[in-house]
């Protein structure tokens, strides 16, 4: 059969004009009919001619091509959008995929550096990447914190934070927010602080020390590097009621050397530092700052139980920059729980005088905030004024 002639109603219309004015929604320039009905004798548009064999309608090749091209573009755009949304999540879930830098606010050696190397070795083995310790000593941790605060929140720069950095707001008008510019991950170890004197000092108890200090008002001095030991030493003198001169040192090792030589009267020193000196017989431990006795010195009473409430416990923990994604925080904290907390690496530190801590992100954040407030209040009572760093 030949093709039917077009009625007058269709004369002068080409395929495109029919496509634009059809009853269904448009895709490009073709029609997807919602319902196809016609009156007897009305010719079909070319794009919807009846098939010669079988029922239904056939579409023109041109229409199929247009729909196919648009559908392909839709798939490509959809995939691109999906990949764009998934990219940040993928970047976080495969963390770490390169080496991680861990800034330490002290020089090599000492409790801070010891804790840092212990935890970085553990994380590196557990996560299959290198965790590099980068020592940035200076200004009681201010140098390290100033460098760290602008790090990208991608998990590849972390900070081994020391309790001395929670003391900084008591001394300085800081160029950063000590709570808001960090993301706490875990507190790793606790460093009890002890009242230490030279082995030849005439006092062997806290009571004898206080009596001697009151009897020699111009002869008492204490050395310090900064942080909790400094404020603990000043607080002890204040609550015990004797005068003492504070002598600053650039490093705690220098202060210890001066104590052993007898050139300063006493120090507030971490148990990790004091252990070797007490065992070697060069120094004596008379009391413990804080409300809990040190595990490595169970026979040394706290200053608080003797009537001289003196806070001064040190600690060390891992923090990330501000806005560190929760997925990375969770991964690091979970890894620490599985490979470090209560395990051999942390227990090895305990043998050196650093007691294990088990505080996760939320608990550690609360500890930092509480300590900052506590130290500011103590500094205020001691008459310490803030200065610019």
Structure, described:
The chain contains 12 helices and 13 strands. With 389 residues, it is of the alpha/beta class. It is 40% helix and 17% strand.
Q: Output the radius of gyration.
A: 37 Å
Structural class: alpha/beta
Task: Name the helicity range.
Answer: 40-55%
Mean pLDDT score: 82
Distance between the termini: 98 Å
Transmembrane segments: 70-91
Organism: Propylenella binzhouense
Family: Belongs to the UPF0065 (bug) family.
Keywords: Membrane, Transmembrane, Transmembrane helix
Short key terms for the protein model shown above:
389 residues, alpha/beta, D-Maltodextrin-Binding Protein, domain 2, 3 domains, six-stranded mixed β-sheet, five-stranded mixed β-sheet, 12 helices, 40% helix, disordered N terminus, transmembrane
Strand and helix layout:
Blueprint: H1 15-20, E1 26-27, E2 30-31, H2 61-93, E3 100-104, H3 110-127, E4 131-135, H4 142-148, E5 157-162, H5 164-171, E6 182-191, E7 193-198, H6 206-215, E8 221-224, H7 228-240, E9 245-248, H8 252-261, E10 266-270, H9 271-280, E11 283-288, E12 314-321, H10 326-339, H11 344-350, E13 355-359, H12 361-381
Parallel strand pairs: 3-4, 3-5, 8-9, 8-10
Antiparallel strand pairs: 1-2, 5-12, 6-12, 6-13, 7-10, 7-11
Helix pairs in contact: 3-10, 5-12
């Amino acid at each position: 059969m030949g093709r039917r002639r077009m009625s007058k109603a269709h004369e002068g219309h080409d395929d495109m004009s029919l496509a634009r004015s059809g009853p269904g929604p448009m895709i490009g320039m073709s029609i997807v009919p919602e319902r196809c009905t016609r009156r007897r004798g009305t010719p079909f548009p070319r794009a919807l001619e009846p098939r010669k064999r079988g029922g239904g309608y056939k579409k023109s090749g041109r229409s199929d091509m247009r729909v196919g091209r648009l559908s392909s573009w839709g798939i490509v755009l959809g995939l691109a959008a999906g990949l764009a949304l998934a990219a940040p999540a993928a970047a976080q879930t495969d963390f770490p995929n390169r080496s991680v830098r861990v800034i330490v606010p002290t020089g090599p050696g000492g409790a801070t550096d010891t804790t840092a190397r212990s935890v970085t070795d553990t994380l590196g083995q557990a996560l299959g990447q290198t965790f590099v310790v980068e020592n940035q000593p200076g200004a009681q941790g201010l140098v390290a914190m100033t460098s760290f605060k602008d790090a990208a929140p991608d998990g590849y720069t972390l900070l081994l934070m020391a309790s001395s950095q929670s003391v900084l707001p008591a001394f300085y008008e800081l160029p950063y927010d000590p709570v808001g510019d960090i993301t706490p991950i875990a507190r790793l170890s606790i460093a009890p602080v002890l009242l230490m004197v030279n082995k030849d000092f005439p006092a062997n108890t806290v009571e004898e020390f206080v009596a001697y200090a009151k009897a020699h008002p111009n002869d008492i001095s204490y050395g310090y590097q900064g942080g909790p030991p400094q404020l603990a030493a000043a607080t002890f003198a204040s609550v015990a009621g004797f005068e003492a001169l504070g002598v600053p040192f650039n490093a705690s090792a220098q202060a210890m050397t001066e104590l052993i030589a007898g050139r300063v009267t006493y120090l507030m020193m971490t148990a990790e530092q004091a252990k070797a000196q007490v065992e070697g017989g060069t120094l004596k431990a008379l009391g413990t700052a804080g409300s809990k006795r040190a595990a490595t010195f169970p026979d040394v009473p706290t200053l608080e139980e003797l009537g001289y409430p003196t806070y001064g416990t040190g600690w060390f923990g891992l923090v990330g920059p501000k806005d560190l994604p929760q997925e990375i925080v969770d991964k690091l904290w979970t890894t620490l729980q599985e490979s470090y907390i209560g395990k051999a690496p942390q227990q090895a530190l305990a043998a050196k005088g650093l007691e294990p801590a088990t505080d996760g992100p939320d608990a550690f954040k609360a500890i930092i905030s509480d300590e900052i407030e506590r130290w500011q209040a103590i500094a205020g009572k001691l008459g310490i004024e803030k200065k610019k760093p």
